[in-house]
Amino acid sequence: MTQIRLEKNGPVAIASIDRPKALNALNSAVLDELDALLDAVRADETIRVLILTGSGDKAFVAGADIGEMSSLTKAQGEAFGRKGNDVFLKLETLPIPTIAAVNGYALGGGCELSMACDIRICSDTAVFGQPETGLGITPGFGGTQRLARLVGAGMAKQMIYTAKNIKADEALRIGLVNAVYRKDELMGAAMKLAETIAANAPIAVRACKKAIDEGLALPMDEAVALEEGLFGSCFETEDQKEGMGAFLEKRRHEPYKNR
Ligand code: DAK
To answer: Which of these, 55, 66, 57, 59, lies nearest to 18 by C-alpha position?
Structure first.
């Protein structure tokens, strides 16, 4: 891979979009590599959490690549949008938890990429926004949908109609990010969060992700039935037996085995 760096640190994988000279803008090559990377992460059973960040010190991702997009025809624009949407959906539905560590500009496709992750944390230098209407287009990688679901329709409409960026403290206030860290502390905080998640029973964590994501699209009676099924399935796992057994025996549980 030339556009994304992937490192593994125990059960945590860290993927960095690596085009710092273009502020990590998303072109077709990055989207293709992200697609392949997500397949590889999904196939690797030792990875329990994925962190996504950007290389360099200015940007997470400054948007879709405007140079590549500027001359698209209607058909090419739709194809580019479909490619991005397919990859972002693959990221959103990855069975393991994902964390966006937003280390600078997260504009347009960059804000959208962060919103396809389960959890967003950011540096105090981060800037979020959907500048598309100022460029003559709509958000194209799910921004109108995910932003409205995350921060509410009114706030999403204000951000999208005005195309105005917001800083980290405002992103925290409206619930777009869970926490803000000093820039030099962001990756340490992301690792600590990832390791805390990775230490819990992986099958249960994945079941919770599925219950929350799929349940939000269902009426409450169907959503709680979904939760019941997933809850029940945990009782077929070794990790449930170890976790509850350790509690009853007043000892610390052994590391969970993902079984
Ligand atoms: N695309 C391509 N190159 C970019 C870029 C981008 N989005 N953002 C920055 N760069 C490049 C700059 O052109 C510059 O390259 P050189 O001139 O050095 O070759 C380099 O990165 C450094 O940028 P600046 O010199 O501008 O750096 P500054 O610190 O002065 O400014 C900035 C940083 C983030 C404020 C500024 O670069 C900026 O405003 N960038 C553009 C941000 C933006 O508007 N992003 C949203 C893009 S629109 C759809 C599919 C997808 C989308 C929409 C529809 N469908 C198919 C329906 C998505 C749209 C978007 O994401």
So the answer is: 55
- Integer angstrom CA distances of residue 64 from 58, 93, 190: 16, 21, 24
pTM: 0.97
* pLDDT at residue number 236: 95
Average pLDDT over residues 99-118: 98
Please, which contacts does 70-77 make with residues 24 or more away whose CB atoms are closer than 8 Å?
77/140
The neighbouring-strand residues paired with 129 are 107
Pocket test for ligand 1, best of 18, 27, 31, 66 (most atoms within 8 A of CB): 66
Q: Report the separation in Å between the CA atom of 188 and the middle of ligand 1, taken as the mean of its atom positions.
A: 27
Return the DSSP state at 124: T
What distance separates the 2 farthest-apart alpha carbons in the chain?
66
pLDDT digits (tens, 9 = 90+) for 183-201: 999 999 999 999 999 999 9
231-238 long-range CB contacts below 8 Å, 24 or more apart?
Answer: 231/207, 233/203, 233/207, 234/201, 234/203, 234/204, 234/207, 237/201, 237/203, 237/204
Helix (H) or strand (E) holding 122: strand 119-123
Q: Is 242 a catalytic residue?
A: no
Q: Which atom of ligand 1 is nearest to the CA of 80?
A: 56
Q: How far apart are CA 151 and CA 154, in angstroms?
A: 8
Nearest residue by C-alpha to atom 52 in ligand 1: 140
Q: Which of 132, 170, 238, 254 is catalytic?
A: 132
> Ligand 1 centroid vs 146 CA: distance in angstroms?
21
Residue 132 annotated in active site: yes
Q: Which residue ranges form the domains of the chain, and what is each CATH number?
A: 4-198 (3.90.226.10), 202-248 (1.10.12.10)
